[in-house]
Amino acid sequence: MAGGAPNWLHVETEDESPRLTTLSSCMALSDVQCDGYIRLLAADISLEDEAHEPSATLKVFRGLKLKQEQPLPGIPTAIESLYIDETEPKTPVIAVAIAESVLFYRHLKPYFKYTIPALDSDDLELEVWRKLPVVKADTHDALLESLKGIDHAKLSRKSQRLLQLTEAERAPFINTHRDSPVGRVGSIVIMCCIKRVSSDANPPSHLVLATDTGHIFILEPQGFNLVYQGRTCSYQTAVPSLLSVQGTYETDFCIVVATRNGGVYLLRKSNSEGQEIFKLNTPLTGLLLLPIDQTILASTMDNRYQCYSKRGKLLYQVQLDSLPVCILPLTMTHLGITLVAVALKGGAVKFFLQRYQVDEFVLEETVDAMLYGRMGMEDHVLTLVTQSGQMIVKILRRVSRFEPKAEALAGRRLGASDQKLTDGSTILDKPKKSSIFVEQAAREKQQAKATYGSFQVELWRLRHTAARATIDAINSSESTISGDLTHAPVKLSAEVCGSGPAFRLYLTVQNLSTFKMASNLMILLHADRRHYTIQQTLARLPSVLPGIPLRVDFEVVALLDPLDKLPPASLTLDNSLIRVMLMKAGQAKPLIAAAVTMPQSEAAF
Q1: Is residue 587 situated within a structural domain?
Q2: Looking at the DSSP assignment, which residues form a beta bridge with residue 65?
Q3: Cα separation, 96 vs 41, whole angstroms
Q4: Which positions ≥6 away from 50 have C-beta within 8 Å?
Q5: Residue 575: inside a domain, yes or no?
Q6: Nearest to 227, CA basis, from 245, 249, 211, 244
Q7: Residues whose CB is less than 8 angstroms from the CB of residue 2 and which lie 6 or more positions away in sequence, other chains included
Q8: Do 149 and 141 touch, CB atoms closer than 8 A?
Q9: Which of 69, 157, 390, 579 sits in a 20 to 30 Å window from 604, CA-based?
Q10: Residue whose C-alpha is closest to residue 284's, from 308, 312, 266, 303
Q11: Strands 205-211 and 188-195
């Protein structure tokens, strides 16, 4: 809390606040209606109804009012909102991880179901299931005893279920599942998103999936292909419990995984098996990989908040007042900082900037789930769900300040600039950047002529470098087929029709990919203005589907001598070219750059 004024404004509602039983991983913010209004999506999990099996419902809130709900086929472990392509208008897809499957919803309607690949079963288990349907019932006990010799975690689900049944229930179960495959499929325990190329607003993303068998998958949701497969570690018993990821898939990324036995492992794009960073004696309740300094934050059940480097070195630790329930990163770009919110048992929520506590508020009961981001029309909204199911929303004040408390900095020695003067005032320490700026301003004032000349030289050098880079980018892209491996390969062909002075230039764009869609493309034409006139030099293309060519035409008019109505003498084969560049939105380098030689125009009599 800064200056006595709270940094967070509490949102009051006239109606009764909705009740919700959920986890932080089962909450997401999404523009599901594509109207610019961000709604809250949460899985309401029901576990207390003894008359019915545990169930879950996907609920959509506009503000704090429930607008829509949809039953889910199981208990989810995570919910994510992501974009799968760059097609405009962008429509988010909701991914819900349930058991071994990921359910995709578009416009809150079922869109696709993906199931993670099954693992190889033990040969002994396959042999037992081959014999069970054909042998007599009195020999089932011996076959089941052989199944018990296999590690329980390596058995398929139907074998695990068979070992739990009584002798009277075995025969119907065997007849029902005799033809079903004997596959060992892990359950998804963690799911999160990783940006594909850039970290801009609403870029296409991939899904990171962690299973209880220790496998880490990255799923490309546009074609539903696995683009990365790895393992947490070499131990079969290491089950992931927490996961955090930073980076982009196309460049480089880091995945930090915490297991139930306290080990923390690091996976990179270049390796498929995690490297142990550090191991704790107590289980973890929260794990974060911060984006800026790339440090690893962990909260443990022994009331500690710790920070480690990627090499496993303990940088600092803070002793908390009570048990940390969950932690959440709060990226505040307008302030240039990233806070970490830690919800403690008893209702306290503390905010840390590195090792210093910079804010705090206390609720009536313990917070079970937290979510931060843009909600509705507000950019910085913190949503909290308590143990009783109460949903609390707080909005960050526009003039909020987060500074370490005075007692946190009391251990530091005061420098000479902090000594108090006799009149009670304090000499403020001048920042280093301010000193450099003052010295530079004085130097430029004394040497104004030389400074201006140096500036002009550097400016012309910059222009020359930019022009050379532009020419190199165009020359390196001179081809009829794009060579950018991060996008769908595209082929460009041209055809000129007409005898002049008016020509019709036909360009055909063809997508050579078998599953990717080429989107956000545009064609740019450039010609010598002394010889040709083009009414439309830029054309934005719709999405190009695989195997379906797209044809675009342009009108090119050759300029003739006004006296004899003939082409000018300055028109040669070298400057009678129309440069065609196929661009992609957001990229400076063209995908394809080609030159079309225009035919000689006839006289206009």
Answers
A1: yes
A2: 62
A3: 11
A4: none
A5: yes
A6: 249
A7: 358, 359, 400, 401, 402, 403
A8: no
A9: 579
A10: 303
A11: antiparallel
Say yes or no: 459 and 532 in one domain.
no
pLDDT at 206: 93
Boundary residue ending a domain (177, 192, 212) = 177
118 assigned to some structural domain: no
Residue 413, pLDDT above cutoff 60: no
User: What is the mean predicted confidence (pLDDT) over 513-536?
Assistant: 84
Residues 399 and 491 in one domain: no
**CATH code of the domain in which 516 resides:** 2.60.40.1150
pLDDT(3) > 60 = no
Helices (H), 178-315: none
Looking up tokens 């014999």, which residue turns up? Answer: 131
Q: Which residues pair with 244 in a beta bridge?
A: 256
**531 and 457, same domain (yes or no):** no
Last residue of a domain, one of 157, 177, 197: 177
Tell whether 261 is covered by a domain: no
pLDDT band at 300 (very low <50, low <70, confident <90, very high): very high
pLDDT-wise least confident of 67-81, 388-402, 475-489: 475-489
**569 shares a domain with 500:** yes
Rounded mean pLDDT, 462-481: 74
The whole-angstrom distance between residue 411's C-alpha and the CA centroid of its chain comes to 40
pLDDT cut 90: percent of the chain above it = 26
What is the per-residue pLDDT across 13-56, written as a single tens digit (0 to 9) for each?
777 777 889 999 999 999 888 888 899 999 999 877 665 678 89
- Sequence-distant (6+) residues with CB within 8 A of 560 are 501, 566, 567, 568, 601, 603, 604
Task: Give, in order, the Cα–Cα distances in Å from 304 to each of 106, 284, 330, 520.
Answer: 41, 10, 20, 48
169 and 133 within one domain: yes
Cα 69 from Cα 61, distance rounded (Å) = 9
**Domain match, 486 and 552 both:** yes
Half-sphere exposure of 66 (CA within 13 A, CB side): 16
Residue 222 DSSP code: T
Token reading at 576: 């009678």
Q: Rounded to an integer, what is the distance from CA 209 to the centroid of its chain? A: 13
Asked if the model's pLDDT at residue 271 lies above 80, the reply is: yes
The structure tokens 């279920």 sit at 161
Buried b (16+ CB within 10 A) or exposed e, 395-423: bbeeebebeeeeeeeeeeeeeeeeeeeee
Torsion sign, CA atoms 530, 532, 537, 541: negative
How many domains does one find in the chain? 4
Alpha-carbon Rg for the chain, nearest whole angstrom, is: 32
**In a shared domain, residues 402 and 456:** no
Q: Are residues 527 and 574 in the same domain?
A: yes
- Burial label for 598, CB within 10 Å (0-12, 13-18, 19+), is buried
Q: Report residue 471's pLDDT band, with 50, 70 and 90 as the boundaries.
A: confident
Instruction: Measure the CA–CA gap between 349 and 321, rounded to whole angstroms.
Output: 11
Which residues form the domain of 10? 1-17+321-416
